[in-house]
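Lab notebook, bench 4. The sequencing result for the construct came back, and we need a structural model before the next group meeting so we can plan mutations. Quick request posted to the team channel:

Model the 3D structure of this chain.
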Amino acid sequence: MEQNAILCELMMQSEKIISNVTILQSVWGPTYYHEIDYLRVYISQLRTKIEEAPSQPRYLITVTRVGYVFN
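Done. Here's the predicted structure in token form:
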């Protein structure tokens, strides 16, 4: 469920950087704004599902210390 919500959030604003905090609050609510490890785990799982080479992502791109972008 969370993976779908994360992917939807990123796809709805494709090619725009979405901050970690924005994604966390959108998916888990305002009290989870600091739980970046949750997000990293779910992004990793998503990459395994949608990327040909998860260690070299083409779609779910990390913007270090900022967030993610869907290309």
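The chain has one domain: 2-70.
Will bring this to the meeting.
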